Amino acid sequence: MATVIVVVNTLQVHASFTDFRFDSFTQEDGLPNNLIQCIFQDSKGWMWIGTSQGLSRFDGYSFVNFQNNPEDSSSLSGNLVRVIREDRKGNLLIGTENGGKRNFFSSLEFHIRKPWTGNFG
């Protein structure tokens, strides 16, 4: 079973070492699937987790999930999220099994502006 592990760094005021706390998350905690494909932290601090069943945004407490809906052109182009990147303007680029698209995330909404044909390198 795959899990997402979040590392929290806690500084000790009078110590010369750092303590680390590890938290793990699974479908039971809100992920759409336990098969993690990629993880990305954007410039706003959101953690994005690409799974085999959709995309999750994590704020450190809970998940918001995004999945493909064939009847909704603003949804993900596919559920198998292979790569997540961010361009210089802060727009997320999401690569799925159905091809990459340039995707913009704002608040809880998912908007597709235009197909993206570049590469993620």
Structure summary:
Helices cover about 0% and strands about 50% of the residues. The protein contains no helices and ten strands.
Explain what you see.
The chain is an all-beta fold and 121 residues long. The protein has one domain (29-115). The chain has strands at residues 4-11, 18-25, 36-41, 47-51, 54-58, 63-66, 81-86, 92-96, 99-106, 109-115. It is globular. Residues 10-14 and 104-121 have low confidence and may be disordered.
Shape: globular
Query: Reading side by side through the largest sheet, how are the strands ordered?
Result: 3-4-5-6
Count the helices. How many?
0
What is the CA-atom radius of gyration, in angstroms? 16 Å
Helices and strands, in N-to-C order? EEEEEEEEEE
Parts with pLDDT < 50 across at least 5 consecutive residues: 10-14, 104-121
* Average pLDDT reading: 75
Percentage of residues assigned to helices: under 10%
Q: Got a strand count?
A: 10
Q: How many structural domains are formed by the residues?
A: 1
Helix and strand content put the structural class at mainly beta
Q: What is the CA-CA span between the terminal residues? A: 29 Å
Largest sheet: 4 strands, antiparallel
